[in-house]
Each structure stands twice: as C-alpha cells, then as structure tokens.
Amino acid sequence: MIAATFIFKKKQFDEEFHRLDNEIATFAKSLPGYIGETSWENTEKGQTLSTYYWADEAALSALMNHPAHQSAKSAQSKWLDGYQVIIQQVLHTYGDSQLDHPLAGVTISRP
Questions:
Q1: What pLDDT is attached to residue 81?
Q2: Interatomic CA distance for residues 64 and 27, integer angstroms
Q3: Which residues of 1-111 form beta strands (DSSP E)?
Q4: Where, if anywhere, are coiled coils annotated (predicted)?
Q5: Which sign, positive or negative, has the C-alpha torsion 79, 83, 88, 92?
Q6: What values do phi and psi take at 36, rounded to 5?
Q7: Burial (CB count <10 Å: 0-12, 13-18, 19+), residue 6
Q8: Which of 27, 38, 51, 80 could serve as a FRET partner for 9 with CA atoms 20 to 30 Å apart?
Q9: DSSP assignment letter at 6
Q10: What pTM was estimated for this model as a whole?
Q11: In the prediction, which pLDDT does 110 show?
Q12: pLDDT tens-digit readout, 28-86
C-alpha cells in the first residue's frame, strides 16, 4: 500500500483551480487502486495536509500522469504558496475501527 501526502499553503483558488481539482478527484476515485483520503489543516501555519491512500504505485502513477494533474502541477504557483509531496510505503496499520478513516478496519501486519 502507498500513501501520498501533499502539504501546501494556499493562495487564492479560482475557477480553473476548482475545475482541475474536481477533474483530478473524479479520476482518482475512479481508479481501481484508490483507497481513500484524509485531510487536515494547520490554521496556525496556514497549511493543509492531504494524504491519499493507494493499493500500489501503479494506481498512484496513473493519477500523476493524468493530463489534468499535469496541468495543475505546472500551474501550481498561481494557487499555492509552497508545497511538499511525500510518497510513503505503508508497512503497518492497526486501530480499533472506531475512526472514520480510509484504513479503519484494514490491518497490515508487519512482515
């Protein structure tokens, strides 16, 4: 399982941003390897952190190579005041399944 974390600081979002964001989200959710996402805001720093969960790297690559994603990436400086992307391999997850989270109830045991 792969997690892709996108941390960013917002500028002003316009109609083009919202159109691309909607197109990217719709495409991502249609991919067989899409598991779900979570998002948090740090209002003190003005940053947003969104983590997307994928069954494998192939599903994430399909999203990253989508034309709308490429367009948004090339225009990001219009809408963002800085960003960082972190791609992680999920090695282990557990919990009591009480949280509304994409991985609630999913158990990955350590090798």
A1: 95
A2: 11
A3: 2-10, 34-42, 47-54, 80-89
A4: none
A5: negative
A6: 160, -175
A7: middle
A8: 27
A9: E
A10: 0.87
A11: 64
A12: 999 999 999 999 999 999 999 999 999 999 999 999 999 999 999 999 999 999 999 99
CATH architecture of 2-89: 2-Layer Sandwich (3.30)
At 108, list the tokens. 């990955």
Q: Closest Cα partner for 51 from 64, 67, 62, 40?
A: 40
Q: Is 101 helix (H, G, I), strand (E, B) or coil?
A: coil
Residue 106 predicted with pLDDT over 90: no
CB 25 within 8 A of CB 91: no
As a 3-state breakdown, the chain gives helix, strand, coil percent values, each rounded to 5, of 30, 35, 35
DSSP lists the bridge partners of residue 47 as 9, 42
DSSP 76-95: HHHHEEEEEEEEEE---B--
Radius of gyration of the chain (CA): 15
Amino acid present at 107: T
Domain boundaries, the chain: 2-89
Asked if 77 and 33 touch (Cβ cutoff 8 Å), the reply is: no
